[in-house]
Please model this.
Amino acid sequence: MAATLRDVARVSGFSVTTVSRALNGHSDVNEETRRRIVETARQLNYVPNRVAQQLVTRKANAVGLYSLDRESFLNQFIALMIGGMMDEATNHDFNLMLFSTQRLKTAQEAISQCRQRGLGGVVISGLRTDEPWLDELNQADFPIVLVDVPVQGPRATYVSVNNVLGARRAVDHLVSLGHRTIGMINGHSAAWVSHQRLMGYQEALRAHGLEIRDSYVYEGDFSKESGRRGAEHLLKANPEITALFAASDLMAVGAVEQLQAMGFSVPDHVSVVGFDDQDFAIHVSPQLTTIRQDMYTFGRLAVRELITMINDTAYIPKHVDLPCVLVQRGSTGPVRTMGRC
Amino acid sequence: MAATLRDVARVSGFSVTTVSRALNGHSDVNEETRRRIVETARQLNYVPNRVAQQLVTRKANAVGLYSLDRESFLNQFIALMIGGMMDEATNHDFNLMLFSTQRLKTAQEAISQCRQRGLGGVVISGLRTDEPWLDELNQADFPIVLVDVPVQGPRATYVSVNNVLGARRAVDHLVSLGHRTIGMINGHSAAWVSHQRLMGYQEALRAHGLEIRDSYVYEGDFSKESGRRGAEHLLKANPEITALFAASDLMAVGAVEQLQAMGFSVPDHVSVVGFDDQDFAIHVSPQLTTIRQDMYTFGRLAVRELITMINDTAYIPKHVDLPCVLVQRGSTGPVRTMGRC
DNA sequence: TCCATCATCCGAAACGTTTCGGATCCCAAC
DNA sequence: GTTGGGATCCGAAACGTTTCGGATGATGGA
Model:
């Protein structure tokens, strides 16, 4: 069907070897013959068979991506991240092959699937920290980049937003508005980011000389409903709270709705800041003050690190830690010094 | 490095041929020898090299996916759709290879890229109807499934939500609530879905014996801002309008915001129904009545059609047209017979 | 004249599979 | 005893590349 290297050789009158070397820009081929070979290749509409190339060079110019489940709450983020990965990969003339995390039983299985396909490396997203086989990963001999799950080895690393910093910025913002009693609605503890965000929250409180109370922290699960419950529980148990920091926009929106249902005005009575800056943050009322993660850049950096690893066997991968910024909108405001209601 | 078929042959004492046939479940191999071969394969940790397999069988068990740009307004949909594609592909033991639509110049280029990789077919999403090379696609000799762009050929088809039906359902719903003067905020005309939704809107009006007026239709561009402008323009020009149908949730949200800013209550004064059922539809106030498209199923069906085409050369691909349903929420209500305000 | 060097080209092996076309052996039927 | 046929196995070619290790001929210097 499609023209092969042999066809080009036959038509142009040179050997397969010479045609290959001509087309690949090697130096030991006369400029005139190269010209003729390139010409007949064009005429025959020749395109190299990458599968055959891959078999002999053992380079796929492609990486794997495990993703797209266990993270419904981040759906739109995934799209942005994949977009960034795609662009970075395309810049390096790489392609992306998608796998489902669904049926994944062990880390070895993921690596093995990629090896079968001849892929150079893999980025895995959507893992939980309590995954039993996480430890295998850091000593794997196959380039791996994890997303939002800490791991470090000679051929493995991870990318993440600086969650500690993000949480600190959220609290800093609230403190700068005069808030002194700040509650937190956290995500579930199986997510690494939950620990980090709690840490940032506590660091910030400490830095401002504020007291850290366990009763000010509610453990949710990133869902809107848990944000609702968190707000209700925190404000009933601690009526002095004037601001809430939620570890996700979804929970923040739930909290706002619950507060409004309880008769509080946001931000007049209680300020709320979220985390993520998802689409809907600007569609709710009031618009959500939140911490923005740049998932596009995130994806780019993940793939960049991976490709660097692939191209340079000696390269020791570094942890990529992305800054995030506060986006100030309508859900936060100065504390009411007169007390509430 | 990794064990090869030859290794298994050497260790087990059989020929490469027999090992291959044993492992692939062919009938002309003794059960006892098969057992021994499988055993040594397990011991050697043998996994078949799919690249080599692919080279000889010319089956990649993988399809391409062009996507992930030109459709920022549908970001989260893409994630759901890819999720569906992944699952369907995985069920057939297929993989998905991602490409960027960004640098795509011609249809031939897409097909050629996939061919190089040995892929069996491709699904392309995010095209515009005014793409100059759309016509090439329907007579391609390479299995193609388009998303939301009509094309039909021996090896090409498209999947789409039944936009006409969806729009009709939206209008039916409004009419059943007593509305008789219904405006529409449409998307830009470069999108095929815009034409379809307008058609459905008009069909429904006709079916209910209502007048079709051009002045009741505003052409937006799917953005929130254009929804805002649409609502303002339509209600200023036609104060008798009591309901709006927007061709996207984003425009619907914009319309609601604008209406509220103009002093109208939604749904007491004006009802609004959207299209898509995006995440944020339940986070806005009032929650959005809208037409839900099931993008997950959408992705599954796209890939199913493609794989059927790949596996059966004689199969004539069918247009897949997904039903969509009305989700009734707070943004629509009975018309106020007493007039507005 | 001879030898070294250089530019240019090519044959053949290799990558790891699948599969075509036998080969071998054994047993039953004639 | 011959034949036929089934069960079981294997050698070798093929898929479309890349690349190692030369081969060839021309050129220039000694």
The first strand of chain B starts at residue 62 and ends at 67.
